[in-house]
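Each record in this resource describes a single protein on a pair of labelled lines. An example record follows, reproduced without changes.
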Amino acid sequence: MTLTGTTLLNGIAVLTRLLTALVLNKVLAVMVGPQGYGVIGQFQSFASMVVAFASAPVTNGVVKYTAEFGGQENRQHEAWRTAATLGLIVSLATSLLLLVFQRPLAMWSIADAGRSWLVVLLAVALAFIVLNALLVAILNGLKQLRSLVLANIAGSLISALTAIGLVSWHGLNGALAALAISQSLAFVATLLIFRRAVRASLRSLFGRLDPALSRGLGRFAIMGLTSAITIPLAQMLMRDHLADNFGWSTAGLWQALWKISETHLLLLTSTLSVYFLPRFAEIQDPNELRRELRRGLAFVTPLVLTTSALLFLGRNDIVELLLSERFLPMLDAFGYQLLGDVLKVISLVPAYTMLSHGQTKVYVVTEVLFAVLLTSLTVWFSDSMGLRGAALGYALTYAIYGVTMWFVVRSLMARLGRVPPP
């Protein structure tokens, strides 16, 4: 399927996710306010870290090998079995650690040991969250886009309805509980969709580990673990800094800025993942890779510039509509945040070459360095400029990241040019 076709089909799932996210953000903003929003963001970062850690063996590596072994059903099943078994082992070990250290982890993540039950909920749900991620990755690698779209729609609706129901019933605690369990509930719907689209039962996904595939998936797991640690940890450190220096309300405003960015970039970033990760994995010719990169940039750059301009022009109405008037102080940082969004999207196109070609060392180094850079710039500029400085740090980080990614692409193209064609 073409990039345009992928975007249009994926847009159905994204539209559903976008609408549910808008409704959910509105409910949370009205019911818990900026301060509660900051606490939710802190636990969300912690949960994201745990989930990404446990699901590292079953995400990007599965997409790559499923696409790479196209037409070789036995090899695909070997890759799935290896990934599923590794994922189950890691998720169960992680769940055990969460149960043992539930109180210290609750204290560290949200400064409230009395809410350690949230860590227990996450531990119970973790294996199902990992299995859901595995099935979605297989559908992506097989380019079963209709089934993938349906699974994403189901997941978005289930997560949103769970969150809205629990926050309406029990306020902030309900919202936090929804973060822990909603992805695991989506597994049931994903499994039903998967069984209709793929000739493989869930039981057949578990079995003997293939040593070579384990090593290959391990490289992708290292990349996933790097993201699992660096990105959410950086967000937690930045949020803590803002809360300590300006209060949890400011931290909640910063969290709202990030949420608007995530919602704004949802269509573009999800399309990049769905289309470019398996597409780049297939390409071994540097000239073809160069053409695909140009097509990607020509496609996403006008879109992100247009959407950013529209958001900036309607920023007052958008904040009141999506959140509430209590979040209007964030408008001072809106322009810098949108600039960061533009630079982020443009830099992600070349960045996907690292993931698709398993450039583990480069990926790990850049992820760590730019997480440190983002945190440092946010702290530095926010000390003198407040919330606006935090958004400026975000924009500057992705300006530097984008330049770095093009050096990475040039290195990859040079390496591919030295490899003789099969």
